[in-house]
Design brief:
Elements (H helix, E strand, L loop, with lengths): L1 H10 L3 E14 L29 H15 L4 E6 L5 E6 L2 E2 H21 L2 E4 L13 E9 L2 E2 L12 H12 L5 H4 L5 H4 L9 E5 L5 E4 L10 E3 L8 H14 L8 H5 L8 H10 L1 H7 L1 H16 L11 H5 L2 H9 L3
Parallel strand pairs: 8-9
Antiparallel strand pairs: 1-3, 1-4, 1-5, 1-6, 2-3, 6-7, 6-10, 9-10
Length: 336
């Protein structure tokens, strides 16, 4: 469906560009997810974070080896580094069209897992594998181009963003709760959405407030973009980008809000069950995906939710890891 949307954009003279920032954690031992037990939790390989990853550190060695493998595959790496949380990493690569970028995300995660396994460790993209530290996100930097020109840039616009850029943001914020189950598709993802750990759950936009779902970074003619920060690294990138771009380009612009309604704080659903309820009740999601795909997706996510307690509690539970869709996929791949 993302491919068909890209063709429609091309007919309308548009190209959607995307640069993802996919965070992950490095854990002790091979198959750490499949062997996870709540009473023990995950064992981090490093206590290092920003500026605290030494040359012989396991995390630094993993990042360097993975970055080298990605460059050999043709990735245009821009940054590769340890992240804020201990044992957390991020490797950023240059923007490209959305379909190619989604392909790159899946291959990136596969390379990370393979490199980690070769080093006797596990790379995991669970959004919140450990409590009391930052979780992992997949920040989506997106822009639109027409005739090779970035139409999100306007040096005189509010926050340096053009009218088209602001309308794109307004449409996404208007549908944020409806599509939260797409952007955060696992039980574990809802542990991450806490602004105290740089994981925004506020449905608003800001140039500086990192508790906001959408941030407008400083940009120029080439780099002007919007950054959608409330996406989990275990979401389906194709479905995520289909939803975001389809809404941002083709949805109706919401009525202008005034007074208390404009300034009040709105929040994303706090659990997967809340997200399922909103998703299921949304007529717009039916229009976006179609009745049958929506019903199937809701069914799969409800089955995942039913395997875990309705209240997340303080500790990461066995079921939210062992029945996680990516962990299950890895288990099945290992059988072949």
């Amino acid at each position: 469906i993302l491919g068909e949307l890209s063709k429609k954009l091309a007919k309308d003279g548009l190209v959607a560009q995307m640069a993802p920032e996919v965070e992950g954690f490095l854990m002790q031992g091979v198959d750490a997810e499949q062997n996870f037990r709540q009473k023990d939790g995950f064992d981090l390989v490093s206590t290092g974070g920003y500026y605290h990853s030494l040359p012989l550190d396991h995390l630094r060695a993993f990042v360097d080896r993975t970055a080298e493998a990605l460059r050999a595959l043709g990735y245009r790496n821009e940054k590769d580094h340890a992240e804020v949380a201990p044992s957390q990493f991020e490797i950023n690569f240059s923007h490209t069209n959305v379909l190619r970028a989604c392909d790159q995300i899946l291959l990136y995660k596969l390379v990370c897992r393979q490199v980690a396994t070769s080093m006797g460790m596990t790379a995991t993209f669970l959004p919140k594998p450990k409590r009391r530290i930052n979780g992992s996100g997949m920040h989506i930097n997106v822009s639109l181009a027409r005739n090779g020109k970035n139409i999100f840039h306007d040096a005189k616009g509010d926050m340096g963003l053009s009218r088209e850029g602001h309308e794109f943001v307004a449409k996404i914020l208007n549908r944020a709760s409806d599509i939260c189950l797409i952007l955060n598709s696992s039980v574990n993802a809802y542990r991450r959405l806490d602004p105290n750990f740089e994981a925004p759950n506020q449905i608003n936009v800001s140039a500086r407030n990192r508790g906001s779902m959408v941030r407008i970074p400083i940009g120029n003619e080439k780099s002007a973009r919007v950054e959608i920060r409330s996406v989990a690294p275990d979401s389906n990138p194709y479905l995520t980008m289909y939803a975001l771009v389809k809404i941002g380009v083709y949805d109706e612009l919401p009525a202008e809000e005034t007074g208390d309604k404009r300034t009040r704080l709105r929040y994303l659903p706090g659990t997967i069950n809340d997200a399922i309820r909103v998703f299921k009740a949304s007529d717009y999601v039916t229009e976006l995906l179609g009745e049958n795909p929506k019903t199937k997706y809701t069914k799969w996510k409800q089955e995942a939710a039913n395997r875990s307690p309705r209240e997340l509690g303080a500790k990461v539970k066995d079921d939210e890891v062992l029945y996680h869709h990516e962990v299950t996929n890895q288990f099945l791949w290992n059988l072949f």
